[in-house]
Amino acid sequence: MSDGPHRSLPMRNHWKCLAERADKAAYSVAEVSQALPAALLQEFREAPLEQLMGALGVGEQPVLFAEQSPQELDALRAVSPGSAIGNALIDCAKEAIANGMSGENACLQAIESALDHCTRSAFRGIEEHYYRQAPDYRARFVRSRMDDARNRSDFRSLAKSILNSKGKSMQGGTISKQDGLDEGPVL
According to the model, what pLDDT value does residue 186 have? Predict the structure, then answer.
């Protein structure tokens, strides 16, 4: 007997951990919502954040020619080829610039939008996998728990912490398992 559809999920381990927590009723919604920022931080480890900040003029040296930012952002795609989060971050930055933002505000908005985009994309993949591998009611249960976790998440503060780390040595989030004798679900 399988441990669950999350084992065969064709995604990275941090998303499998989120799917496992969403699938098992023993985990509370709060515990599911702890796994979401941890998974997002793991994804952002490969994003070209420092280069994005430079292109948007965040930091000591502001951008002199704001009209060149979209071309600089397109050139960043070569820095992280094949990176879904990198491409989403660049697209969100271009959208922020198109909306008239610049500097740190544009960067913060881009990160927040990329977090939301990455979350929605991962949730769709997990849900689709569960619909293929498990009964429909189980897929709906997993999706509703992931949506509850997303609603409890504060993408703005997570984006600020990512921006404050300046892309340097950003550690992926870790989540703790309660595996002690006296630990377990809250009663």
Answer: 58
